[in-house]
Amino acid sequence: MKLKDISINNLRRRKGKVFFLILGLTIGITTVISLVSISRLMNEDIANKLDEFGANILILPRSDDLSLSYGGMSIGGVSLDARTLSDSDVPKIREIEVLENINSVSPKFVGVVEIEGKKIPLMGVQFQEEGRLKKWWKIHGALPKNKDEALLGNEVAVRLFKSANDHLTINGRKVRISGILEETGSQDDFLIYADLSFVQEALNKPKAVSLIEVSAYCNTCPIEEIVDQISKKLPHAKVTAIKQTLQTKMEALDHFKKFSIGISVIVLLIGALIVFTNMMASVNERKREIGIFRAIGFRKSHIMRIIFLEALIVGLIAGVTGYLLGLGISHFIGPMVLGMKSVRWVIDPSLAIGAIFLSTLIGVLSSVYPALHASKMDPTEALRAL
Amino acid sequence: MSLIEIKSLFKTYESGEEKVCALVDVGLRIRRGEFISVMGPSGSGKSTLLTILGGLNHPTAGEVVVDDISIYQLPLERLADFRREYLGFIFQSFQLIPYLTVIENVMLPLSITERSNREQARMAGEILERTGLKGKERRLPDQLSGGEQERVAIARALVNAPPILLADEPTGNLDTRTGKEIMELFKSLNAEGQTIIMVTHNPENAVFSSRTISLRDGRVDGN
Description:
The structure holds two protein chains of two kinds. Chain A is an alpha+beta fold. Chain A is 53% helix and 17% strand. The longest helix of chain A has 42 residues, at 244-285. Chain A is rod-shaped, with a radius of gyration of 33 Å. Residues 71-82 of chain A have low confidence and may be disordered. By secondary structure, chain B is an alpha/beta fold. In chain B, the strands form two sheets. In chain B, strands 6-7-8-3-9-10 form a six-stranded mixed beta sheet. In chain B, strands 2-1-4-5 form a four-stranded antiparallel beta sheet, with helices on one face. Chain B starts with a strand and ends with a strand. Chains A and B meet through helix 1, helix 10 and helix 11 of A and helix 1 and helix 2 of B.
């Protein structure tokens, strides 16, 4: 028999009280794990919904006198500026360290063309990237697949009396209209979209790029960090973050995190208090027993070890059950809160170890005073009958 | 040479304004192999003497020397080690640990030694056989009769073969016949060389011992 056997047997004997002791600590750990898991889900949710937000980083040529307004249509000047971006800048963006956070990179070249006597802005894009970036686009027809196809904004289609499968002539080149955009209420309605290289050729500016839209997301760092990294790769460009949408989401998440920490601290304090009072009561109840141990020749340190071992066992059990319960709760309640349909089970070993460690730490720390108290008990007083 | 030597021992309890002199100038020599009965009416100081002999109660003045060790000059943790190595305690009303089985209760003093579980079980098994409890190792204390519980307490006190056995009213909670059986066990242990110091107020028990020390008002009354 070793000291641990005494601890284990004592815990087994006091099943009822030990149950509440473990329960108190378990509730604390469950709360922490649920909140941590839910905020992680929220983080993931933001990453997943990123597509819906569109671009959040805009890369423009560095220019002192250019006041470009993408929405306000005064884009014409861009192509006239000497310092444009070029095709070769696009792959550089994908070279930044936080690569996995780049969702899409969409280079664009904008110019104005005259079609049937009307001046209309023409935008060259890579349709694959553009489609990924603008998930909200609804098209009558289809996205262009070939170089000789174009997509018309709603307003443009009305002005030119064109519909899908009609043909257009752009600077002497004949293109088929593969689709018409449904009204978006944005500048998209006023543009003709065509393949990037087609537009570069048609406007006689091979490899020129007016702007690059990037959709990026950083789990652990602010968007500014991605902006910084891209700026380093493209020193001749001006990189700006379009923050609004993501910022709001991130702020909400931030508030939730702070709230979680507050709740966790309170619940854990209550857990610690439960362990403390329960251990204290247990020690006082066992006064006589501790007296026997001392009389038999147990050192003070032996008594403390028995108490700490009990706290350790309780902490371990509470840690494991707390983690599992927390995981279950976040799995079933998280999606409800976030309006997600279902989430996959995420078993994170570091979170599990953290939960067990935290629980054990609280159990042992809350037992320091009871253990000291037990070791200092006067054996003769404990054995009054002697 | 004596195993235990008590020199001019004083113990005064202070409760508020009142001072109670539990022991006054007690001096004793106990040789190896003696079976001592400490007798006296309640309040005579016999329990105090036993706790002081047991290394549990610091005297106000005087010295207790066991095997050339002045035990109250030891640091507290060393004093605990002394109790483990030199003393076997048999408490009044058994004082078994309720959540440990018979054999676990007996192994208790061994649990803080380096001995392996197998060695502990062997030692406990031997002493349980000696005290007539073979076959009851796995029972819990509340499944035993008073006499059996007393035997477990004796086995626990003897399991690490301490030089001195201290007993406080070992028959106090037993019927006459069982009490007599326990006394016979003590006598046979003593015959094998076990030093025993027993506190009792029952003159029938004192008959079994080799020497009786009477205490009255904290003083040794004749010798």
